[in-house]
Design brief:
alpha+beta, Nuclear Transport Factor 2, Chain: A, single chain, 6-stranded mixed β-sheet, about 140 residues, about 40% strand, 6 strands, about 30% helix
Length: about 140
Amino acid sequence: MNEKLDMNTVKELWSKTYNTEGKPDWSHIFPYYHKDIVFQDSIQRIEGIEDFTAMCERLTQRSKELSMEIVTIAQNENTIILEWIMTMMFKKFPSTPLYGSTRLTINSEGLITHQRDYYDLWGDIFNNIPRFGKMYRRFIHKKFG
């Protein structure tokens, strides 16, 4: 039987997943996900535990290193919100910090039924490219801000 998911358990589990010396390992978290998990982020929407675990495996294969710092965490009934800084190091590029948050929805059985990740993938990546980051921010401000 899994521990009850609350913000303290989630913080502990997520802290074991990412490290500063290597690739992430989600295997200890997967049992907390419902078989019909719905995951969505800036890039994709995935339904079902098989597709979710495959997505995690692809991310592991693509990155040289992946670490996460949980900045804040809060809970309101069956919803847990994490604010984080994820640093990704790909095989041919410098490390890139991504700033974001995750909303987890927990059902009455204590399983995660929905995970929604929020982050600005391109903005955070483009910030690390000399001159291009400033051009991108000017474009975004002009068109949307």
